[in-house]
Design brief:
Elements lengths: L1 H26 L17 H24 L2 H7 L3 H32 L1 H5 L3 H24 L6 H14 L14 H16 L7 H15 L4 E5 L11 H6 L7 E5 L4
Antiparallel strand pairs: 1-2
Helix pairs in contact: 1-8, 2-4, 4-6, 6-8
Length: 259
């Protein structure tokens, strides 16, 4: 079971997560968003959203750098395993509490407000619940980490994560003797990656990909908002359309400054 969960399941989760995300973008691009409920109830939204998103971003970057950076890089920089462990506990603990408080506010808002719950899908509520459970498990690992401030425990997970991405057949053995709460934290994290394409979490990719798309894939273009009436012909022809008064409705379109 240890070999399957930590040696095979990561590839299943990553494969479904990546291919499912691409397939959703190609098949249902208009669902590639997170629907706003601000008009239904603004209370709790702003503060909860800021705390949750800032906390999650710090945690994600910390896990990404901490787990996937080769151990020899930290050794070359003179960062001891103990110092890295202490930094992870302090920074991760603060960010985890922020994300948990903010996520709790968002979950309470979505679960208790009849109008918001009516417009929420199953996965809107379920994924938020999974993230809150993951945050609780992550904060729970701090109690175990405080007993291993030498950093030796952390190197196990670094070796495991890097072993997965380098296709190390013995990757699962690196965490075989890890504490149960760490294993549950990893298992739930992989499950969140597995269901990622089917939830509102896909908008995270948009936050990174959208700016890059306009910077590199569509050079010379910018998004502008114009009050000019569309020049598309109507039933009476383009001349009749041009004689009408300009519309007050703002329309969004792309324009090329070079034209």
């Amino acid at each position: 079971m240890n070999s399957f969960i930590f040696g095979i399941y990561p590839y299943i989760a990553l494969g479904v997560g990546i291919m499912g995300t691409v397939a959703r973008y190609e098949r249902d691009p208009f669902t590639w968003k997170t629907s706003s409920s601000q008009l239904l109830r603004r209370k709790q939204l702003v503060l909860g959203s800021i705390l949750f998103h800032v906390g999650v971003l710090v945690i994600f970057l910390g896990h990404f750098v901490g787990l996937l950076t080769p151990i020899w890089v930290f050794d070359m920089l003179g960062v001891s395993h103990g110092a890295k462990q202490t930094l992870a506990v302090v920074a991760g603990g603060i960010a985890g509490v922020m994300a948990l408080v903010g996520g709790g506010m968002l979950f309470h808002r979505r679960w208790t407000d009849p109008r918001i719950r009516k417009t929420s899908s199953f996965w809107d509520i379920a994924i938020l619940g999974l993230l809150l459970a993951q945050l609780v498990l992550g904060l729970g690992t701090i109690t175990v980490s405080l007993q291993h401030l030498d950093g030796h425990e952390m190197t196990k997970f670094m070796s495991w994560a890097q072993g997965i991405f380098t296709f190390d057949g013995d990757a699962a053995s690196y965490v075989a003797d890890a504490a149960l709460i760490f294993k549950l934290h990893i298992l739930l994290g992989l499950t969140i990656i597995l269901v990622f394409p089917f939830t509102r979490l896909v908008h995270i990719v948009s936050g990174v990909a959208a700016p890059l798309r306009y910077l590199f894939l569509r050079p010379g273009y910018q998004i502008v908002r114009s009050r000019r009436q569309s020049s598309l012909p109507t039933r009476s022809g383009p001349v009749a359309a041009a004689r009408k008064a300009p519309s007050r409705t703002a329309s969004t379109h792309a324009t090329n400054p070079a034209e």
